[in-house]
Known about the structure:
2 copies of one chain form a homodimer. By secondary structure, chain A is mostly helical. Chain A is built from 15 helices and 2 strands. Chain A has helices spanning about 5-10, 15-25, 35-45, 50-60, 65-90, 100-130, 130-160, 165-190, 195-215, 230-235, 240-250, 250-265, 270-280, 285-300, 310-325; strands at about 95, 100. Chain A has a two-stranded antiparallel ribbon with strand order 1-2. The interface between A and B is large, with 44 and 44 residues.
Amino acid sequence: xxxxSLVTISKPIKTELAExxxxxxxxxxxxxxxxxxxxxxxxxxKGKKIRPLLVLLSSQIAGTINERTYRGAVLVELLHTAxxxxxxxxxxADKRRGFPSINAIWKNKIAVLMGDYxxxxxxxxxxxxxxxxxxxxxxxxVKRMSEGELLQIKKTRKLDINEETYFKIIADKTASLFETCxxxxxxxxxxxxxxxxxxxxxxxxxGIAFQIKDDILDYEGSTKLFGKPIGxxxxxxxxxxxxxxxxxxxxxxESAKIKKLIKESGKTDSVTSVINFVQNKNGIQxxxxxxxxxxxxxxxxxxVFPENSSKESLLALLDFVIERKQ
Amino acid sequence: xxxxSLVTISKPIKTELAExxxxxxxxxxxxxxxxxxxxxxxxxxKGKKIRPLLVLLSSQIAGTINERTYRGAVLVELLHTAxxxxxxxxxxADKRRGFPSINAIWKNKIAVLMGDYxxxxxxxxxxxxxxxxxxxxxxxxVKRMSEGELLQIKKTRKLDINEETYFKIIADKTASLFETCxxxxxxxxxxxxxxxxxxxxxxxxxGIAFQIKDDILDYEGSTKLFGKPIGxxxxxxxxxxxxxxxxxxxxxxESAKIKKLIKESGKTDSVTSVINFVQNKNGIQxxxxxxxxxxxxxxxxxxVFPENSSKESLLALLDFVIERKQ
Lengths: 326, 326
């Protein structure tokens, strides 16, 4: 299953993804010049569009893609974009997808307001389409995402985090939106509750695997051309699965020494030492094993569906997520 | 009509306001410790609660206060609180209602996430109550509020703003939420479209008068104990009605000189000169006259309603808004 690419995965819904992009770009239009300027800048930085892809595939595996599917895909992508813009303020990030971040160019104030604008646009689309089930799922997700991030910040300050808390945080801040994408997709094309539940669970496990892999990438070898630089999480004192495992499998004095290094992690030397420590303690292998387990659990969720091209794509997406290099 | 107080105005709905506070405080609970800590801090700083007051009075003037009225009041107050928390990041404010702001204590990242959390909580209450009309009004309001603020930022940078743009900005960033409060209140207790429209218009005019008065207070005499310090808008290069009028009634070289002073308004001397200029040109009297005109237009909107104690309060509220000292 090597060399899985998003292009291959998208094949069964190629025309639908193009249609989505048209609707999505139109949804971001505003009469306020500054809003249009910022949204155009956002649209130039093409992301992976994994979330709309999930909505479309989840709709197709359960039935036929329709107007409601597109509204759902636009809703989740607007919300995701809103949270990225806010996250850049939250993380004080200078870059996003290789481009300077919104807050780096236009300052925090505009980033905060643009996030609020994009979020309200997404919700308006659901209100106008009378997709009240989407709204219920979505507002709950916004709440979970912000609670997850706040929990992470609190634990980060104390460098005090175990596996249980880690899984709670990533379920809320990351997996909740993947769950939402899959459930919204299935709901848009089918009335079968069993399908809604199966896709929601698939999304949850996929999302957890996705975040674990994201956290692994922070520890891996070469500096990446795009995306977050290596060691970024350590500098921000974010304790993720590879490090949690390594700390739990060290003597007390060694783990105390590493925590001290993390506190001083403004210095590059300290970051390198922490990365080496995690590698020596097999923290990355362990996290990879767990990500694989979640991917396998997600695969099982698809057993209720008949064999078809969208199912193949959703299976391949799991391999893509845990094998990706960025 | 001097010495109107919010206590007198609240009299017809005293027990209902107390009930609102109980429901509102409960709505902000979270299992995440940091969220609870921040919300408790917010709840300690009792605001004027003008928005829930408006929802309750608008419900009572059109019918009888009920469960849906309370949900509406909680929804608008949660949204208002969310925007205050975000505004402090937007304005880089250190203080709010005489207390250090959330971002001053917990930094921008927590302020952004808390705003998102409070917004989603508000929307969830409307979703759970199946108040889909509220949701439609509310998401449109969030969009207008962020667009209004973004338009203000854009114009601020160029010091380029006329009365028309000023009224567009304050209608979107401030009056839209007052409109929403009054329409939601009327909708919660009555099916009569004429009542919904009358209260929406009342809210719009009240909101415009409220913001003009807010902008006047930035120019007025003594340093205030609570709230924004005098001259804060000038320091942020926000051109409001008193200054727009004064600039429009000056010779070209004088107005150019003042604009230069605003650009350097980090210095206290420059701020004082701008305030003196506005006072000499009767900018404050002019703005007071316009605020009074909007208050009178708002009064006319209430003519469709029979005489009762809520109507008296809504009339008195207009006097309170334009006569207040903070």
